[in-house]
Amino acid sequence: MSAAALTGLPRAVLRLHRWALLAWAAFVACLIGWLVWLTEVTAVGARADDLSCHNAPACNISRLLAYTEQVGWIGTLTCYSFLAVAAFAGGALIGRELESGTAQLAWTQGVTPTRWLTAKLALPALAVTAGGTALVLVFRWGWAAHRDLMGDDWTFADVFVARGPLTVAYGLCALALGALAALLLRRTLAALGTAFAAMWLVNFLLERYRADLWPAVTLTSPKRLVLPGGAWQVNRGRNADGHFAVYHPESHYWPLHLVETGIVLTLAAAATIAAYTVLRRRTA
Question: What is the pTM of this model?
Fold first, then answer.
């Protein structure tokens, strides 16, 4: 393939999916702007409400509740943005071109299937990585700036994901699984639904077994145990030795987070390899 063709293919992908990329950029920019406004402006009123409640038997905490609720929504949208990525990858990015025959036409005009898929995945992967990284950095700043006002702690599923590279890992995994679903099914709606469901299942299983990804701390005592602040209680009860508690201290956040990130990135790599394998077998 000529250098001009190589240059033209990414340009064609950008032109074809420019509205999706613009929507993603707008989504990232809106969440960042929203969080900056909450952190720098809304939090002032929320803190005033919080302080007034320390000195009065009755107080109005509407601004405090609004602040915590909106920050929680930003964390939720950041965490689960991978579901939209999966739907886009399975439907618009790959599935639609396979179903309409556009991809097959490109393969007959000097663009090999492997280069076609690479061009299709490279630009969205870059956008997901850049946008996800920006969201994580701003969310970490906003969440830490007024943490004493927050109702969500580090163990909440959306906060757990949104505070680190797991956000980007889930996005890349969604992109890979969406492409794989499209190449296997070759139907837009079927691939979209399958990719969405697959990523939901991956997240559901990892969230359910998240506490098992790193060894927890076990305490025993003849007296009732009081766990450290910020601890994630996994189990608690009584046995022959008295009271026991199994928990993750807040210092376990990064080990748990990075182990899950590694699992998701491994799944993303496996799905990518599988997608190229399916493509080569079907176009051989």
Answer: 0.89
